[in-house]
Design a protein that fits this description.
36% helix, 229 residues, binds adenine, 29% strand, Rossmann fold, globular, 10 strands, 6 helices, five-stranded mixed beta barrel, alpha/beta
């Protein structure tokens, strides 16, 4: 690796990282801010994309194509689907899918368009590093499927559809689009999330209450991983 990209969706998801790395240079590009850091000799670029798949795709491809990052780590929060996941728990995606991509009218499976794939795998090597760090730090981290869509999910009905259709463990609004970009550009990546809510009727209240604390849990783990990549 020559240059590492670290992404979040919301400012709240990257604030703890900027506080940790402290000395950064801000570059404005494409209506967004990119923060360049050198940490123990490693060049890192940090950015939050703004919410959703389109902004996340723009930021991921900018980090790779303009800033020349060759590895991408994502840190943020997610809604739980798997009942074993509670608020504050960590999940790293083994693979990701787009739960709202739907041309089933033409006989295709949910999450699929011709030329694409339903699931995109995270980098096995980065998952190994994440597992090793979790073990050393005595952290409980679940590996599972993350489903992404341009919807804040706050109903059991939608949650059950995503669980049944994709066997997903958690959901959020950016991961799979970042995965599509990294897969197409051959850049190893992983998506790390800490649970902020359970994507049910209380999700919007829980999200507001736990966004900052869960973002911090995710970023604390991510900086430990940065030491090892
Ligand atoms: N990110 C965190 N919680 C979420 C939810 N319930 N739906 C979509 N994205 C989320």
């Amino acid at each position: 690796m020559n240059k590492l990209a670290i992404m979040g969706a919301m400012q709240e998801e990257i604030d703890p990282l900027l506080e940790f790395f402290k000395d950064y240079k801000t570059i404005e590009y494409a209506d967004n801010k990119y923060y360049e850091v050198n940490y123990k000799g490693l060049d890192i670029v940090i950015a939050h994309s703004k919410i959703g798949k389109v902004f996340a795709s723009l930021t991921a491809s900018t980090l790779i194509q303009k800033f020349s990052c060759d590895t991408l780590l994502f840190s943020g929060v997610a809604g739980a689907i798997n009942s074993k996941l509670n608020i504050g728990d960590l999940i790293v995606a083994t693979k990701l899918c787009q739960h709202d991509l739907d041309i089933t009218a033409f006989g295709h499976p949910n999450g699929y368009v011709p030329g694409g794939k339903v699931f995109i795998d995270s980098s096995k090597e980065l998952l190994e590093v994440a597992k090793k760090v979790a073990k050393n730090e005595n952290l409980k981290v679940i590996e599972g499927v993350i489903a992404t869509g341009d919807q804040f999910v706050h109903s059991n009905e939608r949650k059950e559809f995503i669980e049944k259709t994709f066997k997903a463990d958690a959901l959020e609004m950016e991961g799979a689009s970042v995965a599509v970009i990294c897969d197409a550009l051959d850049v190893p990546f992983f998506i790390l999330r800490a649970i902020s809510d359970s994507a049910n009727g209380e999700a919007n209240f829980d999200f507001d209450e736990f966004l900052n604390s869960s973002a911090k849990i995710s970023s604390n783990y991510l900086v430990k991983i940065v030491e090892e990549v």
